[in-house]
Amino acid sequence: MTRVVTLGSDSIVVQSIGSAGGSAAAIPPMAVTLGMRDILAARKVRLYCAGGARHSAVFRIAVAGEVSIDYPATLAQGHPDAVVLTDDATAQPIQLGLR
Fold it and tell me: pTM score > 0.85 for this model?
């Protein structure tokens, strides 16, 4: 179900760090949210996941993780016209620190 929700202060802080240089005042206090039923009913699904290392796990789970309601983005794997877009930094292999 599509609806308008009020963002919690923790969501505003996280969004401000990632997209507004830390300025919580630059983040709108409300957002529009869609349910997975509405998203999966669309003819085309386009997901965008770019944030470098901090989003690499989300990207990998969305495109290659086991399909599960625990990670709703994985449900798009069964859609006939779903595309997940990312940037080079997010798609980079995980680097393990070897000592």
Answer: no
pLDDT tens-digit series, residues 35-73:
999 999 999 999 999 888 878 888 999 999 999 999 999
Query: Using 50, 70 and 90 to split pLDDT, how confident is the model at 93?
Result: confident
What is the CB neighbour count within 10 angstroms for residue 62?
Answer: 21
Give the span between the Cα atoms of 50 and 66, in whole angstroms: 21
Concatenated DSSP letters of 23-54? -GGGS-SEEEE--HHHHHTSS-EEEE---GGG
CA 5 – CA 7 distance, rounded (Å): 6
* DSSP one-letter string for 52-82: GGGGHHHHHHHHHSPPBTTBGGGGGGGSTTE
